[in-house]
UniProtKB/TrEMBL annotation:
Signal peptide: none annotated. It comes from Roseiflexus castenholzii (strain DSM 13941 / HLO8). The keyword Kinase does not apply. One of its GO terms (molecular function) is aromatic-L-amino-acid decarboxylase activity. GO terms for cellular component: membrane. It is found in: Endoplasmic reticulum membrane. Belongs to the group II decarboxylase family. Sphingosine-1-phosphate lyase subfamily. PANTHER family: PTHR42735, SPHINGOSINE-1-PHOSPHATE LYASE 1. GO terms for biological process: carboxylic acid metabolic process; sphingolipid metabolic process. Keywords: Endoplasmic reticulum, Lipid metabolism, Lyase, Membrane, Pyridoxal phosphate, Sphingolipid metabolism, Transmembrane, Transmembrane helix. This is Pyridoxal-dependent decarboxylase.
Amino acid sequence: MTISPVGRTPDEIMTLLHGFKAQDMDWRSGRVFAYIYQPAEIAATLVKEAYSLYLSENCLDPTTFPSVAQLENDVVRMIAGLLQGDECVVGNMTSGGTESILLAVKTARDWARAHRPHVTQPEMILARTAHAAFHKAGHYLGVKPVVVEFDPVTFEADVTAMRAAITDNTILLVASAPCYSQGVIDPVPAIATLAQEYGALCHVDACVGGMYLPFLRTLGRTIPPFDFSVPGVTSISVDMHKYGYAAKGASVVLYRDRSLRRHQIFASTETTAYTIINPTALSSRSAGPIAGAWAILNYLGEAGYRDLVATVQAATERLMAGVDAIDGLYVLGRPAMSMFSFASQAINVFQLADALRRRGWYLQPQFSTPRSPRNLHVSITYGVAHNVDALIADIAACVEEVRHMPPIDLALVRSVVEALTQDPSPAVVEGLMAAVGLQPGALPQEMALINEVLDTLPDAVANEVLIDFFNNLY
């Protein structure tokens, strides 16, 4: 493809874009139970208008656009207050939870360089249930993730295992509030106390829970402490574009005080160009997400968020009860909020996900671990809450459908896994992936067989296969 010799009209361009979207799942119908967090239409329209108003403003230089700094400070102060932070708590808005987590890990690394210079190979301790963003941050920043197991019944992080994993190189302990995969809150006070005991920092990943759990608590639910009310918690990440219902590209990372946040900031006067001062990872970035977050916070207020949480939580509990009542399915762990996962000993849940997708639903497959079975993840938001009864009915119907389907060809799976384990080179990956329905540059229509292979492979090999596939996709 090359740039068109002559330009197209706006109508032609929009027609093409709408045509491209025809291949996407219709999330507006409320049948996509992941990725999308949609408020009521009037709120969504306001967010779009605020975003568009600040689309071109650049966060790079607050002296040029002082209103952007004001909006960011307002959002940070509101979220800090919601998470029981005092006037010393500071933070910044980022592009998403991954960037917030990356910055928290970077801050911990650079804090350790200043305060524990003997540490040359820094480590952070996290449960297997923690988000992959921590592994990504460790990969980028040279901080080794030390992974410990979780309680196979509750899915909470194993604090005793964390203690056993601490070494002189430990700079950071991680807790989830909750973990995305099963919606379970880790024992944050115990983890934060452990971090204090050993002179380490403690980050709480509240990317999904930060804008939900405080309002659930005001509705009378018992929510264990997880925020700045817990001594020893030194940083928290919370996404506005999840249960804050802001537009994508809006997260917040908070620190206990400025002395800690200082390690996040980068500055450079060493070049012939303008001075760079970056509080976050990016330099130029649109102020649209900040304006959208500011707008939705002010539009909904505490009462509006509380109403949304009440609606979503009621739908969540109805859906969990409905899933548990279906013969052969069971919910994993003890979910604390509006996300959970379920497994089955009777059918292949990867086939169930495909069967549901053929009916227009999307549930998120998750692989097994030594302590957890393969499962399907469900995130309930305001935009899908009205559909949970229809989903329960279709899950039950699809379970029966899968019971009568031919099983996945396990002999094929074993042969592919054996070959890839012996030689995971790109050429071998390309040849074998074709056998399970993956073609270079194309997305598969059904995923059950592919997920079966990936779930069976050792993690290191599965990661290489996925990297090679995506390397050919774009």
